[in-house]
From TrEMBL:
Residue stretches making up the OmpR/PhoB-type domain: 14-112
PROSITE patterns in the cross-refs: OMPR_PHOB
SUPFAM superfamilies from the UniProt entry: C-terminal effector domain of the bipartite response regulators, P-loop containing nucleoside triphosphate hydrolases, TPR-like
CDD domains, A to Z: trans_reg_C (cd00383)
Pfam families: HTH_77 (PF25872), NB-ARC (PF00931), Trans_reg_C (PF00486)
Protein name as annotated: Winged helix-turn-helix domain-containing protein
SMART domains, per the entry: Trans_reg_C
Keyword DNA-binding found: yes
Protein's UniProt keywords contain Transport: no
Gene3D superfamilies for the chain: P-loop containing nucleotide triphosphate hydrolases, Tetratricopeptide repeat domain, Winged helix-like DNA-binding domain superfamily/Winged helix DNA-binding domain
Organism, as annotated: Pseudomonas gregormendelii
Amino acid sequence: MSGAKDSPSNPLVSHPVNFGQYHLYPDQRLLLRNGTPVDLGSRAFDVLAVLIAHAGDVISTRDLVRLVWRGVVVDESCLRVHISALRKALCCSDADVCYIANIPGRGYSFIASITHLPLSSAPDATASKCLIGELPLRSRRMVGRNDAVSELIALIEKQRFVTLIGSGGMGKTCVAIAVAHDLASHFEGQILFLDFSQIQDSRLLVGTINSALGVQCNGSDPTQALIEHLSGKHILLVLDSCEHVIEGTSFLAENLIGHTTRAHILVACREPLRADGEHTYRLGPLDCPSSLMGLSAAQALKFSAVHLFVERVTQSDDLFALTDSNAPVVSHICRKLDGLALAIELAASQVAAYGLHKIADLLNDRFSLFWEGKRTALSRHQTLHALLDWSYVLLSATEASVLRRLSVLNGKFSLELAAQVASSPMDETMVIDALGRLVTKSLVLAEIVDQTMHYRLPYTTKAYALEKLSSNGEHEIAIERHANFLIARLERLYVPEEALPEHERIHRYIDELGNICTTLEWAFSKRDKLMIGIRLAAASAPLFLGLSLLDECRRWSLRALAAGGYEVESVSQKMGWQNSLFFSSIPTGKLEALRSSRSQSLIFDERRKSSLSPLRSFGDLITAHTKTGQDGEFREITSHGSSFNARITDPKEIAIIHWMAGSDCGLEGRLFSAGLGPASVEGASDLSLAHDYRIRALSSLARVLWLRGYPDQAAEIGREALERADRQRHPQTLCLSLIYVSTVFLWIGDWRAAEHSITKLTSTAMHHSIEPDHAVGLGLKGILLCGLGDVDAGMPLLRECLNVLSIENHQVLAPMFIRCLAEAFAATGEFDTALEILTGVLEMIENVGESFDTPEILRIVADLHATRPRPDLALAEQYLCRSLSCAGRQSSLAWELRAATSLARLRLMQGRRAEAGELLQSVYGRFTEGYDSTDLREAMRLLNSLH
């Protein structure tokens, strides 16, 4: 079962409940519809009682049968018969309510909102009398507001005067009516509900109430007459839609509460009345899943916004079902609409016409403001545009102007930014005052983050205000003011000599990302605003790099460099773009762009006699070439980079040259053993280098230590690298360290550590859209699964990984995945396919030279020849001897042990037992640690069998 409870134990609902037109009394086994008994069979009643007891949860058919029939063995088809009977019995006259949902492949769920009633309530206790006609029917469509109703009831009973506030379309009227119904018995039917939306003159308020109550004024003061009439009466006045007559409502409510003792008032309004004795209750949005949750359909349905959306869609499309695949789209729509009930209902009503995915796309268009709701709805609730018109016309000129100008901002913004964008020609004090009023009127949202107040326009309000901004001809002025503010703010980040500031400082600017990208798009789309785009691109490049937003950095750096005919302010600014383009191009392997950027950087920095930028470029060129596997040029780069040794004094420069030394896996063992390790770079600033070369050096050293025959030290250094990378929170560096160290864990055979680091790699790379690293994570997961014996699950991941790496020109790790894929084919008996794959790898080695894992490739080829159905032991021995020789040249004791183990087995098959033992012991005896690793345990088992 999917739901909040894995195995429901409470079989039936224990309290009376209300849902829609229905009241259920479990003790009497009675279901009433508008006071009339509904004929239900005994089993159907029990099914309903179980579903209501677990309302919102998905109950599997197996659990339903177990709870209803209690030990009696019945076929599940019997349950379907009773579910069908229930649905017919619960069918409403307008056929627009869904109470029981079928979750495909999971079970059933009671999805309507329920209200628990007192145990003492009797069937006739729910009837309510209203002083004028009928209190509007409780909405059968209310979702996710039970807690609000309960809290308001308690507040009204205690405080007498409560104002329910919230933005338009939030569901205030619906909640107020529900509260009135639940309080009907408490006030003995003395409830007056008045909708003030049609009253335009505050002077008519008292007369309207007097008329509804039948109060005769006879020439006296109507307010005093009303007070005298209500004196001593236990009554609830529900006053709805008061924002356009708010001053009159405030005066009236204050007088009634001050001069009566038992009268209670519930006001529904978009802002507080600010009257004496008033207590406010803000109605928030419906609950929405966050963008990072990745919920299943059953889990998503527990969020009230998703619940409402699904319920409304099924009213117009009974074939619609929430599934695991479309749940993320529905969640996105609900988030985009800020959990606003009316907006969700209007969007859901259009799914039958446009489809779910198209609805998600259309939310970015002002067209969605004109989607129509029910014909019977209030005129201001027919469309979102009409709803917002109702609020907009009530604003002062200053408030309306500020709201329009704030619409150019995306996401959260600060008070400082709001004042900058909206002030001209107004005074900043006026803007700040207007912003506060807009928050009070529920048109701007406010929240405290890290002890700082942030503001945001709801999606629907922003779309409406942006339309008004354009129609008033103010759009260009507002967005240009916004652009200049962003440039000034981002230039505080930029230090000409250092590409990036500290990580913590950068993260203070994350909320500005949406605004930056939108403003850059605007500037580069207009010929007369290109200079603004150029300045903003230069100022934002360090931020993009620091947050590993490489695509954005590369995109805007290219746009800035391509803006011909415009002189930049300084040579250093242009070089900043070159470096930004360079750094952001590394993961893609676009070497032509890298060479161009490097050559220009070198010319500039050689002229300034600086070594840091050239070393930075060399270090990142090494990254690019190691990813693309172009070893010839790689070695030329490392050689050139080493020529800077004489000028190196800065810890940052030392960090780069140390990492350079460790990046060539063919040379890294000798270089590190010569003393070029990471220990001396503690003083290097992490992000001023755009990448943390200290962490890269540690990650590389972990691999080196394993290759040299120190598995325990390799694991220890690898974990240290991961801890440092995790603290630094730089996605690019974290992914690289996870790739290196995950490989070490796989080599050692620490499957649990490997699984943990690989999972973190794939999630980090996916979250930050680093596609090559995500593909590597999939490949490593494939290796892990194959290592655990699940070849069928591992092979598709290896294939997907190799496909992406080929497209992305990310080739350095490809041989590792290719050889593992070949081993997987061999494990399934496809030896010819495996050998064919590895033959291609051997041809590549012949053409480009040995790589660090050439000994392992030769060993695997040998094992295939030795174990295939028609083995060629002589050829296998030749390959193993080559593997041993290659491992010796590279000083790779780890590969040497694997080759020696395979050769010992081969000689044992040939009857050469003594030679096998002598060979394996000579290699095994050179190890001083790592005896719990997979390779050493396997070698020891073989040695024991040979004695």
